[in-house]
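[job 4471] stage=fold_predict status=RUNNING
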Amino acid sequence: MIKRLVIMSRGPSLSLLAAICCWALAATSPPAGAQSAVVDRMIESLASTQTLSADFSQTTAAKSARLRSASGTFYISKPGLLRWEVKKPYPQIQLLNDKEFWLFDVDLAQASVRPVHAANLTGIAALLLNTNSLTREQLLSRYGFSDLGARDGLQWIGVTPKTAEPGITSLAVGVDSESLLRRFEIHDNLGQVTRIELTRILKNVAIDPKLFQFTPPAGVSVLRAP
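[job 4471] inference complete, writing C-alpha coordinates
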Protein backbone atom coordinates (compact mmCIF):
# COMPACT_ATOMS: atom_id res chain seq x y z
CA MET A 1 0.00 0.00 0.00
CA ILE A 2 1.26 3.46 -0.90
CA LYS A 3 0.88 6.00 1.88
CA ARG A 4 1.88 9.58 2.66
CA LEU A 5 4.42 9.61 5.46
CA VAL A 6 7.56 11.32 6.70
CA ILE A 7 10.77 9.42 6.14
CA MET A 8 13.22 9.73 9.01
CA SER A 9 16.59 9.61 7.30
CA ARG A 10 19.28 8.19 9.55
CA GLY A 11 22.01 7.98 6.93
CA PRO A 12 23.99 10.36 4.73
CA SER A 13 22.11 12.62 2.32
CA LEU A 14 22.06 12.07 -1.41
CA SER A 15 24.23 15.16 -1.96
CA LEU A 16 26.85 13.63 0.34
CA LEU A 17 26.71 10.35 -1.52
CA ALA A 18 27.10 12.11 -4.82
CA ALA A 19 30.06 14.06 -3.50
CA ILE A 20 31.68 10.79 -2.55
CA CYS A 21 30.97 9.10 -5.87
CA CYS A 22 30.92 11.83 -8.50
CA TRP A 23 34.66 11.69 -9.21
CA ALA A 24 34.47 8.07 -10.30
CA LEU A 25 31.43 8.87 -12.43
CA ALA A 26 32.05 12.37 -13.70
CA ALA A 27 35.66 12.53 -14.81
CA THR A 28 36.09 12.17 -18.55
CA SER A 29 39.67 13.29 -19.20
CA PRO A 30 42.54 14.99 -17.34
CA PRO A 31 41.75 18.67 -16.79
CA ALA A 32 44.03 21.04 -18.64
CA GLY A 33 45.97 23.30 -16.32
CA ALA A 34 45.49 21.21 -13.21
CA GLN A 35 47.66 22.44 -10.36
CA SER A 36 49.76 19.30 -9.99
CA ALA A 37 50.59 15.91 -11.45
CA VAL A 38 48.81 14.33 -8.46
CA VAL A 39 45.54 15.88 -9.61
CA ASP A 40 46.17 14.79 -13.20
CA ARG A 41 46.81 11.21 -12.15
CA MET A 42 43.66 11.09 -10.03
CA ILE A 43 41.50 12.33 -12.89
CA GLU A 44 43.15 9.88 -15.29
CA SER A 45 42.43 7.01 -12.90
CA LEU A 46 38.82 8.05 -12.43
CA ALA A 47 38.32 8.56 -16.14
CA SER A 48 39.04 4.86 -16.61
CA THR A 49 36.52 3.86 -13.92
CA GLN A 50 33.35 2.25 -15.27
CA THR A 51 32.24 0.55 -12.04
CA LEU A 52 33.37 0.86 -8.45
CA SER A 53 32.33 -0.93 -5.28
CA ALA A 54 33.73 -0.92 -1.75
CA ASP A 55 32.99 -1.32 1.92
CA PHE A 56 32.96 1.95 3.83
CA SER A 57 33.28 3.12 7.41
CA GLN A 58 32.08 6.63 8.18
CA THR A 59 32.30 9.03 11.11
CA THR A 60 30.70 12.46 11.45
CA ALA A 61 32.05 14.90 14.02
CA ALA A 62 30.50 18.17 15.18
CA LYS A 63 31.35 20.49 18.06
CA SER A 64 27.84 20.37 19.47
CA ALA A 65 27.06 16.67 19.00
CA ARG A 66 28.51 13.27 19.79
CA LEU A 67 30.53 11.40 17.22
CA ARG A 68 28.32 9.42 14.86
CA SER A 69 29.48 6.37 12.94
CA ALA A 70 28.13 4.10 10.22
CA SER A 71 29.37 1.34 7.95
CA GLY A 72 28.21 -0.53 4.91
CA THR A 73 28.80 -1.07 1.20
CA PHE A 74 28.32 1.02 -1.92
CA TYR A 75 28.17 0.32 -5.66
CA ILE A 76 28.40 2.80 -8.52
CA SER A 77 28.22 2.26 -12.26
CA LYS A 78 28.31 4.59 -15.22
CA PRO A 79 26.11 6.31 -16.09
CA GLY A 80 24.53 7.59 -12.89
CA LEU A 81 23.79 4.39 -10.98
CA LEU A 82 24.33 4.35 -7.22
CA ARG A 83 23.48 2.01 -4.36
CA TRP A 84 24.58 3.17 -0.89
CA GLU A 85 23.72 0.54 1.72
CA VAL A 86 24.22 1.33 5.40
CA LYS A 87 24.39 -1.87 7.45
CA LYS A 88 25.29 -0.48 10.90
CA PRO A 89 24.01 1.00 13.16
CA TYR A 90 20.65 1.35 11.33
CA PRO A 91 20.10 -0.57 8.07
CA GLN A 92 19.18 1.78 5.24
CA ILE A 93 19.38 1.75 1.45
CA GLN A 94 19.64 4.78 -0.82
CA LEU A 95 19.38 3.87 -4.47
CA LEU A 96 19.64 6.01 -7.58
CA ASN A 97 19.04 4.74 -11.10
CA ASP A 98 18.08 6.35 -14.39
CA LYS A 99 14.41 6.55 -13.38
CA GLU A 100 14.04 6.88 -9.60
CA PHE A 101 15.63 7.70 -6.28
CA TRP A 102 14.67 5.37 -3.41
CA LEU A 103 15.26 5.76 0.31
CA PHE A 104 14.41 2.67 2.39
CA ASP A 105 14.67 2.53 6.18
CA VAL A 106 14.65 -1.15 7.09
CA ASP A 107 13.89 -0.84 10.82
CA LEU A 108 11.05 1.64 10.30
CA ALA A 109 9.65 -0.36 7.34
CA GLN A 110 9.32 2.93 5.45
CA ALA A 111 10.40 3.93 1.96
CA SER A 112 10.14 6.97 -0.26
CA VAL A 113 10.54 7.18 -4.01
CA ARG A 114 10.60 10.03 -6.47
CA PRO A 115 11.34 10.33 -10.17
CA VAL A 116 14.84 11.47 -11.01
CA HIS A 117 13.50 14.61 -12.70
CA ALA A 118 11.56 15.49 -9.52
CA ALA A 119 14.44 14.98 -7.11
CA ASN A 120 15.38 18.69 -7.30
CA LEU A 121 19.06 17.85 -7.16
CA THR A 122 21.55 20.69 -7.40
CA GLY A 123 25.27 21.26 -7.17
CA ILE A 124 27.44 18.23 -6.55
CA ALA A 125 24.45 15.90 -6.50
CA ALA A 126 23.39 17.08 -9.95
CA LEU A 127 26.75 16.03 -11.37
CA LEU A 128 25.90 12.42 -10.66
CA LEU A 129 23.00 12.61 -13.09
CA ASN A 130 24.99 14.30 -15.85
CA THR A 131 27.99 12.04 -16.04
CA ASN A 132 27.79 11.44 -19.77
CA SER A 133 27.63 15.12 -20.70
CA LEU A 134 30.12 16.53 -18.18
CA THR A 135 33.23 17.80 -19.96
CA ARG A 136 36.59 18.65 -18.46
CA GLU A 137 35.83 22.33 -19.02
CA GLN A 138 32.61 22.02 -17.02
CA LEU A 139 34.48 20.19 -14.27
CA LEU A 140 37.07 22.96 -14.03
CA SER A 141 34.46 25.70 -14.21
CA ARG A 142 32.64 24.30 -11.17
CA TYR A 143 35.49 23.11 -8.96
CA GLY A 144 38.91 24.21 -7.83
CA PHE A 145 41.54 21.48 -7.29
CA SER A 146 44.50 21.81 -4.93
CA ASP A 147 47.34 19.48 -3.98
CA LEU A 148 47.20 19.15 -0.18
CA GLY A 149 50.32 16.99 0.09
CA ALA A 150 50.87 13.63 1.76
CA ARG A 151 49.22 12.47 4.99
CA ASP A 152 48.62 9.03 6.53
CA GLY A 153 50.30 7.31 3.60
CA LEU A 154 48.01 8.95 1.03
CA GLN A 155 48.15 11.92 -1.33
CA TRP A 156 45.39 14.42 -0.57
CA ILE A 157 43.57 16.59 -3.09
CA GLY A 158 41.26 19.42 -2.12
CA VAL A 159 38.10 19.97 -4.18
CA THR A 160 36.16 23.19 -3.59
CA PRO A 161 33.00 24.27 -5.47
CA LYS A 162 33.49 27.66 -7.15
CA THR A 163 29.82 28.46 -6.60
CA ALA A 164 28.19 27.97 -3.22
CA GLU A 165 26.36 24.64 -3.06
CA PRO A 166 23.81 23.36 -0.53
CA GLY A 167 25.35 21.50 2.37
CA ILE A 168 28.91 20.80 1.30
CA THR A 169 31.60 23.49 1.52
CA SER A 170 34.68 21.44 0.63
CA LEU A 171 35.85 17.91 -0.08
CA ALA A 172 39.29 16.36 0.40
CA VAL A 173 40.11 13.12 -1.41
CA GLY A 174 42.87 10.76 -0.31
CA VAL A 175 44.37 8.56 -3.03
CA ASP A 176 46.99 5.82 -2.89
CA SER A 177 50.08 5.32 -5.05
CA GLU A 178 47.88 4.03 -7.88
CA SER A 179 45.56 7.08 -7.61
CA LEU A 180 42.77 4.87 -6.26
CA LEU A 181 40.29 6.57 -3.92
CA ARG A 182 40.82 5.50 -0.33
CA ARG A 183 39.49 8.22 1.98
CA PHE A 184 37.26 11.29 1.93
CA GLU A 185 36.82 14.26 4.24
CA ILE A 186 33.66 16.30 3.67
CA HIS A 187 33.08 19.66 5.39
CA ASP A 188 29.54 21.01 5.46
CA ASN A 189 28.00 24.39 6.21
CA LEU A 190 26.99 23.27 9.71
CA GLY A 191 30.62 22.85 10.72
CA GLN A 192 30.45 19.06 10.60
CA VAL A 193 33.29 16.94 9.23
CA THR A 194 32.48 13.54 7.76
CA ARG A 195 35.37 11.13 7.23
CA ILE A 196 34.94 8.01 5.10
CA GLU A 197 37.43 5.20 4.61
CA LEU A 198 37.07 2.61 1.83
CA THR A 199 38.20 -1.02 1.99
CA ARG A 200 37.79 -4.07 -0.26
CA ILE A 201 37.71 -1.79 -3.29
CA LEU A 202 36.81 -3.33 -6.66
CA LYS A 203 37.27 -1.26 -9.81
CA ASN A 204 35.79 -2.19 -13.19
CA VAL A 205 34.35 -5.47 -11.90
CA ALA A 206 30.90 -6.35 -13.24
CA ILE A 207 28.04 -5.37 -10.91
CA ASP A 208 24.67 -7.14 -11.00
CA PRO A 209 22.18 -4.63 -12.55
CA LYS A 210 19.54 -5.84 -10.08
CA LEU A 211 21.41 -4.03 -7.31
CA PHE A 212 20.22 -0.74 -8.81
CA GLN A 213 16.56 -1.73 -8.78
CA PHE A 214 14.29 -1.77 -5.75
CA THR A 215 10.98 -3.45 -4.94
CA PRO A 216 9.55 -2.65 -1.49
CA PRO A 217 9.10 -5.75 0.68
CA ALA A 218 5.57 -6.66 1.69
CA GLY A 219 4.22 -4.48 4.48
CA VAL A 220 6.52 -1.52 3.81
CA SER A 221 4.83 1.90 3.73
CA VAL A 222 5.80 3.91 0.66
CA LEU A 223 5.67 7.62 0.04
CA ARG A 224 5.62 8.25 -3.71
CA ALA A 225 6.33 11.78 -4.87
CA PRO A 226 4.61 12.92 -8.10
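[job 4471] summary: The chain has one domain: 14-206.
[job 4471] exit 0
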